């Protein structure tokens, strides 16, 4: 009896393991994995830096201004607002799951999150500070100096440590446990039949060719306007700006579809206001398909199952400036 | 024996109660009390609204932009940045402990937090929306409609509910348990002898005349430049703007000194960058006193004991806009 029970048990376990692994391994979309091997000291420091507007010249703009973690890691604007209300050149991509991207920025000009983090601080159109000024601010604040010492073992703050800490925090901003991931992991009731039909369409029609993997995107550069040209007044030229190769003109990093319901408006120019519009344009331009209203709605329904658990943490308290801290100059 | 023990016990208890009540009742500064009788549904809704930049025309500025709860409930700027980077007319007062104020704004033009909350939303120099537009945005978002229904019992969102919820959230933003309050409540070791000397000076020299009570301020209007006139290019005229009475010219609500180490720069024009500077100017202008460097430092040391427990909560997640939600127009 005991052996029989054991055999039955093993059979049961292997069936579950097998059915899970079929789902996880055979689908071209993979569940988002919770984050591993994180340096918590860096995360806590990086969280403060991410929310600290003193990294900007004005003292008003932080990483969180354009990658707002209350709003899907974006600003939900077509293009962002920079120093002195300058209009940004491109739509702010979500910071959520950005650690899974092949490279950072729409044109991939930063290899990773650490390299990315230094960009906006010193970009005259964004935070408009300099690395020197930002470091002077941090170095003047004893509580920051202590925290850098604790985390990096030295009281000399440099931009490598600043960007490393921000990147480490950003690595925690993954969004597992979406309804679609629950389905991928074996819960057949996690999505509706309409949503499942949307996923089937998404695969069969070819969206999956670019939007696959853990992020449903973020892992390749593709031409915007593959079948028909994309008409826009936006001047961004994508990967061409990085490689200088003609074949890379209008190639952009494929955006992730994770949390897409939260990260409107869509495309690098932010010109698609709704998912319905974005799906319709993508169908035409990238696949030469005119989706029926019904099929479009099914795909949109599927896309809305991709919203995962949002980052949840206590609002960070920033250490106060002291008398010698360089003052912000928003109006100079 | 039992009766003797009881008598000793009662004597012991009454001594503690008495000594506590001497401290709490006899000092002109009172400890901040933790908040009571709060409507938690309104608080959670109000927290979202406080962080929601869609209450502004640009979709970029929220209450938290200028009353940043990571930075002492202020923006740490001389005067704030409004819609399209307009320079604000006056220093943003902290939202911390603002429920204890006699009235809201530097000139007291709003009777309470609820009345205050409606102001910046519709102020063309601040969030630059209109109540109509802000309500249209909220009413378009099903998750907000559901939450208003749950909290206020109706699906018709109006500005009264919006400001009531924000005000209820703001009531939770008190900061009890500062080291000075610990001292007031009987812990003699909570502050140093220098800090205590600073408090004695603060009382004896007369700062306490205006900076008293739970908030060390916020409970009266006083002329800025009582003994000598205050020289500033700032055009604010204070209470005069509300009453039209000549005697009210340059009368401002006395700012709270709670968390003053975090709420730099100081005065209604934000022109005092440091506490040392602010204490020195106050001494001269309001009391006709030239503090020695040593006495100034003692008062500053005392002031730094007034930083209490900062509000601590999970960053709110904002319900996503839907297709019909009016779009932000930052650059129109």
Helix/strand layout:
The structure is a homodimer of 332-residue chains.
Chain A: H1 2-26, H2 40-51, H3 63-66, H4 113-122, H5 131-140, H6 142-152, H7 159-171, H8 179-184, H9 193-205, E1 221-223, H10 240-243, E2 251-253, H11 275-287, H12 293-303
Antiparallel strand pairs in A: 1-2
Helix pairs in contact in A: 2-7, 4-7, 9-12, 11-12
Please give a structural write-up.
Two copies of one chain form a homodimer. The first copy, chain A, has 332 residues and is mainly α. In chain A, 40% of the residues lie in helices and 2% in strands. The first copy, chain A, has twelve helices and two strands. Chain A has helices spanning 2-26, 40-51, 63-66, 113-122, 131-140, 142-152, 159-171, 179-184, 193-205, 240-243, 275-287, 293-303; strands at residues 221-223, 251-253. In chain A, α4 (113-122) packs across α7. Chain A is globular. At the A-B interface, loops of A face loops of B.
């Amino acid at each position: 009896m005991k052996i029989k029970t054991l055999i039955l048990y093993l059979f049961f376990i292997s069936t579950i393991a097998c059915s899970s692994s079929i789902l996880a391994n055979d689908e071209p979309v993979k569940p988002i994995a919770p984050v591993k091997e994180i340096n918590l000291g860096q995360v806590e420091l990086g969280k403060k830096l991410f929310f600290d507007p003193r990294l900007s010249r004005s003292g008003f703009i932080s990483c969180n201004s354009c990658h707002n973690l209350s709003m899907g890691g974006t600003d939900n604007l077509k293009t962002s607002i920079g120093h002195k209300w300058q209009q940004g050149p491109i739509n702010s991509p979500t910071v959520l799951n950005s650690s899974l991207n092949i490279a950072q920025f729409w044109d991939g000009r930063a290899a990773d999150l650490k390299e990315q983090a230094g960009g906006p601080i010193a970009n005259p159109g964004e935070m408009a500070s300099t690395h020197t000024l930002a470091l002077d601010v941090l170095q003047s604040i004893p509580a920051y100096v202590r925290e850098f010492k604790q985390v990096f073992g030295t009281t000399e703050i440099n931009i490598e440590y600043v960007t490393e800490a921000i990147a480490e925090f950003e690595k925690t901003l993954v969004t597992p446990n979406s309804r679609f991931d629950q389905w991928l992991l074996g819960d057949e009731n996690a999505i509706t039949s309409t949503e499942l039909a949307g996923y089937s369409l998404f695969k069969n029609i070819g969206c999956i060719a670019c939007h696959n993997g853990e992020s449903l995107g973020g892992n390749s550069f593709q031409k915007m306007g593959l079948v028909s040209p994309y008409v826009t007044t936006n001047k961004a030229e994508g990967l061409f700006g990085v490689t200088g190769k003609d074949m890379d003109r209008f190639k952009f990093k494929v955006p992730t579809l994770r949390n897409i319901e939260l990260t409107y408006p869509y495309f690098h120019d932010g010109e698609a206001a709704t998912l319905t519009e974005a799906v319709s344009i993508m169908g035409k331009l990238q696949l030469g398909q005119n989706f029926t209203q019904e099929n479009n709605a099914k795909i949109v329904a599927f896309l809305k199952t991709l919203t995962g658990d949002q980052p949840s943490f206590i609002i960070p308290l920033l250490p106060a400036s002291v008398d010698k801290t360089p003052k912000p100059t928003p109006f100079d």
